[in-house]
Design a protein that fits this description.
Growth Hormone, Chain: A; mainly alpha; 2 domains; 17 helices; globular; 76% helix
Length: 467
């Protein structure tokens, strides 16, 4: 049997052993390359947190301004994921992802040269005029970086749904989803080394700049790698489309009225996508509340030293990797691809963990804190990975990036609650009320996932108006 790329009904299961072998090779290659590429997006995003102490010491930028940079970056990133999802479904994913990563690297190079650029613009190397220009330039540059970061996940969603069958997507995409934890972990190690060993003088003046330049150089090399070795859909390498994922449109053009109608039905008019989006909002509130406030919460409410608290939060992330893998495997193995059902169980688990964390007394067992935090990470990272998988399956491969862009926008809108909101509650009402807030958010998330309990695993069997 030939791999007729013009016949969209060609099924991979009916292909020759040679075609199946080629498909497996390209599937594995695509998964690995996109994992590396997406991890490198985190190299030029999560480096900021490690550079902040140096920026505060060297430049005198306040914690408030640094916090504004983080919040603005997170919100614009969420909007950018949505906008880029709409375009990524219509573009060559190889070019889209490689170009986006290269532009993120350029923005990081510019951020590292911020002092020099601000000095050139203001005509000063110190003083209020220079400081104001510097703060504005760095803020705009990091805002631009947040917008460019939105080019990372959408092309990956497009690629993965074209190369992985719906009934395997939860398992394999959960493996893929570890890429952001890997990237974030590696860049923290790299930037920690940079901050301790580079720069001038006893306080390593200027070391923070290398936290942007070195990761940017690595990301630029990664973008070249993606451009050279990555490919788009199976058709682009002469292979058949996945079995059972054919979605016919009378006009195979992204600009057609049929395609717009398809998007309205499968994404913007699909109540399941909106349910996933609202649920994702609460998933990310719980996740970011622990990540961003974990060290402070553990120190002030449980009497844990900052050194130990930092390790506990790091292990929360590592346990999350295990949680993603188990959740994806269990979804395909026991729930026949119904990722939304797995999310219900995970959110109930995270709610129980939040209650246990609240009940551990001040000065209580550090091992118990460690165990509960790891369990929390295990449960909350399951939905964090599976929402994207469920959205991709419900919207089908032709709208996977758009659907993930929409649910991702909800996710990063949560920073308004997990950041300023959580801090306000803790400051004015105390940590007990803050714990209640986490428990409540987790429980609400479980309830929202329950709304689609009876939904099918994917939207491929549904008849659409665009058929």
């Amino acid at each position: 049997m030939s791999a007729d790329t013009n016949n969209s009904n060609t099924q991979t299961t009916a292909a020759t052993p040679e075609v199946r072998s080629r498909f497996r090779y390209w599937q594995t290659r695509t998964i690995l390359l996109t994992m590396i590429g997406y991890a490198l997006y985190y190299f030029v995003r999560k480096n900021f947190s490690m550079a902040m102490p140096g920026m505060e010491a060297d430049l005198g930028i306040s914690k408030t301004n640094l916090g504004v940079y983080l919040t603005a970056n997170g919100i614009i990133y969420g909007i950018s994921r949505f906008v880029n999802g709409f375009f990524a479904d219509r573009c060559n994913a190889r070019i889209y992802m490689a170009t986006g990563l290269a532009l993120c690297a350029v923005s990081n190079f510019a951020f590292g040269f911020g002092v020099d650029i601000a000095s050139w613009i203001s005509g000063q190397s110190s003083g209020s005029g220079f400081t104001n220009v510097l703060i504005l330039f760095l803020g705009l540059t990091w805002l631009i970086n947040g917008a460019l970061q939105g080019t990372g996940f959408p092309p990956c969603a497009r690629l993965l749904t074209h190369w992985i069958p719906p009934r395997e997507l939860a398992t394999k995409m959960s493996v893929w989803n570890t890429s952001h934890s890997i990237g974030a972990g590696l860049v923290v190690i790299l930037c920690g080394y940079i901050m301790n060993n580079m720069g001038v003088g006893a306080h390593h003046f200027g070391a923070w700049r290398w936290c942007f330049w070195i990761p940017a150089g690595i990301a630029m090399l990664g973008s070249i790698m993606l451009f050279v070795f990555l490919r788009d859909t199976p058709k682009s390498v002469g292979l058949p489309e996945l079995e059972g994922t054919t979605v016919k449109l009378r006009k195979q053009t992204a600009k057609s009225a049929e395609y717009s109608a398809f998007l309205r039905e499968k994404v913007f008019g699909n109540p399941l996508i909106w349910i996933l989006g609202f649920a994702n909002f609460f998933v990310y509130i719980v996740r970011f509340s622990v990540l961003d406030w974990g060290p402070t919460l553990l120190k002030q409410s449980k009497g844990v030293s900052l050194a130990h608290a930092g390790w506990m939060v790091a292990l929360f992330e590592i346990a999350g990797i295990v949680g993603m893998l188990v959740a994806g495997w269990a979804t395909d193995r026991y729930l026949k691809g119904r990722a939304h059902r797995t999310c219900v169980f995970c959110m109930i688990g995270s709610t129980i963990c939040a209650v246990l964390l609240w009940q551990i007394p001040v000065g209580g067992s550090s091992w118990m804190l460690f165990a509960v935090l790891c369990a929390t990470g295990f449960f909350i990272y399951g939905p964090q990975a599976l929402v994207g998988i469920a959205a991709a399956n419900q919207a089908t491969k032709k709208a996977a990036a758009t659907a993930n862009g929409l649910t991702g926008m909800f996710a990063y809108a949560s920073t308004a609650v997990s950041g300023v909101g959580f801090g306000y509650v803790a400051q004015h009402y105390g940590w007990n009320i803050a714990y209640f807030a986490i428990i409540g958010m987790s429980l609400v998330g479980a309830g929202i996932f329950m709304l689609m309990w009876n939904a099918k695993a994917d939207g491929y069997e549904e008849k659409t108006n665009a058929n």
